[in-house]
Design brief:
By secondary structure, the chain is an alpha+beta fold. It has one domain: 3-Layer(aba) Sandwich (Aminopeptidase), CATH 3.40.630. Helix content is 37%, strand content 32%. The protein has an eight-stranded mixed sheet, with helices on both faces.
Length: 186
């Protein structure tokens, strides 16, 4: 279990299923995070997609409020995709719309990035974000992720094509940022 100033990151429980469906059934989440058509999801999504991903993820947590752990905020993943030898993982974050704009994405990203490099032994974290998801891109840039490349017109959403931005953060970049933060505290 990890904590931030406002949040608790804990293991998935089957009692989270209704909240998971609410999160992934949100049009904005479907349009920016998934590669399937924006359609209502059912319990088959939990069984076929979500639960297996919690078992195969390098790191996976349910995000709740620290002050009230019964309040579901979102989910966060680090996934290896069969390249464990390269010590690289994909970062993925989804926050319920009701909890967006409260800096929770920034808090979670900072703590998971820290865990990934300090405890998880990662060398590289990477992610992709639709260009229309400006809030997410700002969160990732604050955490030190840099743009690597753009997949042009990769995401069809709201009647148009959107580019997908691929970003990464390397272990040595994280270490340099960490040293700068430590020096500024002295």
């Amino acid at each position: 279990m990890l904590t931030t100033e406002h949040l608790l990151l804990r293991a998935y429980q089957s009692s989270d299923d209704a909240n998971i469906l609410e999160l992934y059934d949100t049009p904005a989440v479907q349009l920016t995070m998934t590669n399937h058509l924006n359609t209502p999801l059912g319990t088959d999504f939990i069984e076929a997609v979500f639960r297996p991903s919690t078992k195969s993820a390098y790191f996976h947590s349910i995000i709740t409020l620290r002050s009230d752990p019964s309040v579901f905020v979102g989910v966060v993943f680090l996934e290896h995709f069969d390249n464990a030898k390269d010590r690289s993982a994909m970062y993925s974050l989804a926050v319920l719309q009701a909890h967006q704009g409260k800096w929770y994405g920034t808090e979670v990203t900072k703590v998971v990035v820290d865990w990934g490099f300090r405890m998880g032994g990662l060398h590289r974290m990477w992610l992709s974000a639709s260009e229309c998801n400006l809030g997410a891109i700002r969160v990732y840039e604050k955490a030190g992720f840099q743009k690597d490349w753009v997949a042009r017109q990769e995401n069809w959403a709201n009647g148009r094509w959107w580019d997908c931005i691929y970003m990464s953060l390397l272990e040595e970049e994280f270490s340099a940022m960490d040293r700068e933060q430590t020096a500024s505290m002295v």
